[in-house]
Design a protein that fits this description.
By secondary structure, this protein is an alpha/beta fold. 36% of the residues lie in helices and 19% in strands.
């Protein structure tokens, strides 16, 4: 991973969208710092589009889309996307699955939850499970003592044996039924809301993340950036980001935002309009 400070003005010139994870990328030890929130604001004010992607629940996404300085929020690892039209003052939602599939999956998720909690001592349902639509989030270190890597691996094993997709974040294991992820929903949102081909224009995006569930995004975007704590997962991810910040978590995100804004101002007298 190359230090992000080596990112060039020529590269920055073409960037029109920042896509970012939340937990331990924007937040620091579970808190949204003033510096990290201000970094989101500065990115928007500078003319960049900001899309948040997260494993957090749909209920959180409603709040984030309304209250944060972002353009859209992809939630539950790609299960849904929320965005707020400030002109019409209406919240819009896109779902990956139809209502009947969601209902059927809910019953299976509830059964799997009991299997995991019984089979892996020390785990708990994530505190936000009550406002999830698509997935099962098992807490292994957010509100419980860390259960260890063997325990995390066991959660993944149980989920995958049941036919679920399982992704490990810095705090939870998320499992779901369905062929979607952060990348697939981001692709749909960019095309349908903004008329942007995410694959053809992948050089025009920066993705920021910190953990194994960001691997599909790290692999897809040549300008993917990990905040420094991504180093904690070296050797445990399917793909690593091209760049890494000096700062961890929210400090690293603020570092990314500041340098990107400065480089774009330095490297281009004309803005990219997409």
């Amino acid at each position: 991973m190359t230090p992000f400070e080596q990112f060039s003005a020529a590269q920055a010139r073409g960037i029109h969208t920042v896509i970012t994870d939340i937990d331990d990328t924007i937040t620091t030890e579970g808190k949204l710092t003033a510096a990290a929130y201000a970094a989101l604001e500065r990115l928007r004010v500078s003319g960049l589009r900001v899309i948040v992607t997260t494993g957090r629940p749909a209920g959180w996404c409603d709040h984030i889309a309304r209250m944060w300085p972002v353009d859209a929020v992809v939630g539950e690892n790609g299960g849904c996307c929320y965005w707020y039209d400030r002109a019409t003052r209406k919240l819009a939602v896109r779902h990956s699955l139809p209502p009947d599939a969601l209902q059927a999956n809910r019953r299976k998720l509830d059964a799997l939850a009991q299997q995991v909690l019984t089979g892996v001592p020390g785990t708990a349902l994530a505190s936000g499970q009550f406002c999830r639509l698509y997935d099962l989030a098992i807490d292994f270190c957010e509100d419980v003592p860390h259960i260890g890597e063997a325990g995390v691996a066991r959660i993944v094993q149980i989920m995958e044996a049941a036919g679920m997709t399982a992704k490990v974040s810095s705090i939870h294991v998320n499992g779901w039924f369905g062929n979607y992820d952060k990348l697939s929903m981001s692709r749909e949102v960019m095309h349908d809301l903004y008329g942007v081909d995410l694959d053809a224009q992948r050089d025009c995006f920066i993705y920021a993340g910190d953990s194994p569930n960001d691997a599909p995004m790290f692999a897809h975007f040549p300008n993917a950036v990990g905040v420094a704590n991504v180093r904690d997962f070296v050797g445990k991810m399917d793909a690593s980001p091209a760049y890494v910040t000096q700062g961890r978590s929210g400090e690293g995100f603020a570092e990314l935002a500041g340098l990107l804004i400065r480089l774009k101002a330095k490297g281009s007298s004309t803005s990219v309009s997409i």
